[in-house]
Specification:
The chain is mostly beta strands and about 100 residues long. Helices cover about 0% and strands about 40% of the residues. A 5-stranded antiparallel beta sheet has the order 3-2-1-4-5, with no helix packed on it. The protein is elongated.
């Protein structure tokens, strides 16, 4: 379930980050509740992580994710420009491809 709030860029900070599991919790004064975030919505290559207390900007959508009612759609560090999203696929989840070539 989506909401118009996913177009708004919120300013906040990382409340907690579980590096071993690849997710954390963000908070902003502009949202009524904490926001669940996965490392895959942080622009970059490979595994990305945040640290508790770190300042972030993010977009969020209404969604039931674990016990949270908000999920981050994109997480940016304060000086990072927003991505167009064209290389992220259709959603905030992780995507990968596999190419197999056989020798003849």
């Amino acid at each position: 379930m989506s909401d118009a709030a996913n177009e708004t860029v919120h300013t906040g900070h990382v409340l907690e980050w579980h590096a071993d599991q690849g997710w954390g919790v963000l908070v902003s004064r502009t949202l009524p509740e904490p926001v669940w975030a996965h490392f895959s919505v942080i622009p970059g290559v490979g595994y990305r992580e945040l640290t508790a207390g770190q300042a972030v900007r993010f977009t969020a959508e209404r969604a039931d994710q674990d016990f949270f009612h908000w999920r981050a759609a994109q997480v940016l560090l304060p000086d990072t420009p927003p991505e167009s999203g064209s290389d992220r696929g259709d959603g905030p989840g992780y995507a990968s491809t596999l190419r197999i070539a056989y020798d003849e």
